[in-house]
């Protein structure tokens, strides 16, 4: 809604695209479904944390996709980026639990970018993500792509 997660996702995807052997496909949670999970060899989930939980649209994606993918994507690698105002741990725990249920393999620690947005005005304002935080996102995207290309994952 405010662009922070989108900036993070684009940074990671751009870095992943540097790996020629990997095809990167970005999908918004409200547009993605079980077929997208089945078609991919690995996943980089990116979401904001809202009210100490993953964004509702991300939960909706998992609700719509879970059973279509269950026992069909076991062992595939994933990483997670979370854009949060102050903490991010609630969203991380939720996504990790769902990915455990899907039997995915976490290949990097979750990356949380803290925006320090604590007032209604700052929470609702468009987000700028600092360069060092975007670099952390690029590193995750690059590492995931390199691991997939090398067959490590």
Describe what you observe in this structure.
- Helix content is 46%, strand content 16%.
- It has six helices and five strands.
- Strands 1, 2, 3, 4 and 5 form a five-stranded mixed β-sheet that branches.
- The protein is globular.
- The mean pLDDT is 97.
Quick synopsis:
The protein is an alpha/beta fold and 153 residues long.
List the helices and strands and how they pair.
Elements: H1 4-16, H2 34-39, E1 43-50, E2 53-54, H3 56-69, E3 77-84, H4 89-101, E4 105-106, E5 111-114, H5 120-124, H6 131-150
Parallel strand pairs: 1-3, 3-4, 3-5
Antiparallel strand pairs: 1-2
**CATH top level label:** Alpha Beta
Total number of beta strands: 5
What's the CATH H-level homologous superfamily? Flavodoxin domain
- Number of separate helices: 6
Q: If you consult CATH, what is the topology?
A: Rossmann fold
Shape: globular
Portion of residues in helices? 40-55%
How far apart lie the N and C ends? 32 Å
Q: What would the average pLDDT be, to the nearest integer? A: 97
Sketch the topology as an H/E string, one letter per element. HHEEHEHEEHH
Return the structural class: alpha/beta
pLDDT < 50 stretches: none
How much of the sequence is in beta strands? 15-25%
Radius of gyration: 15 Å
Write the CATH architecture name: 3-Layer(aba) Sandwich
Summarize the biggest pleated sheet.
Answer: 5 strands, mixed
Q: How many domains is the backbone divided into? A: 1
């Amino acid at each position: 809604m405010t662009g922070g997660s989108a900036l993070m996702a684009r940074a990671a995807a751009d870095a992943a695209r540097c790996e020629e052997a990997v095809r990167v496909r970005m999908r918004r949670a409200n547009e993605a479904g079980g077929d997208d999970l089945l078609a991919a060899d690995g996943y980089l989930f990116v979401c904001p944390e809202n009210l100490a939980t993953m964004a509702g649209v991300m939960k909706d994606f998992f609700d719509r996709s879970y059973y279509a993918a269950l026992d069909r994507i076991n062992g595939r690698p994933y990483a997670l980026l979370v854009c949060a105002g102050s903490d991010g741990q609630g969203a991380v725990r939720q996504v990790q639990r769902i990915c455990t249920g899907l039997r995915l393999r976490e290949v990097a620690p979750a990356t949380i970018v803290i925006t320090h947005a604590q007032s209604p005005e700052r929470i609702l304002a468009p987000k700028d993500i600092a360069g060092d935080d975007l670099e952390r996102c690029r590193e995750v995207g690059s590492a995931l792509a390199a691991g997939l290309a090398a067959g490590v994952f």
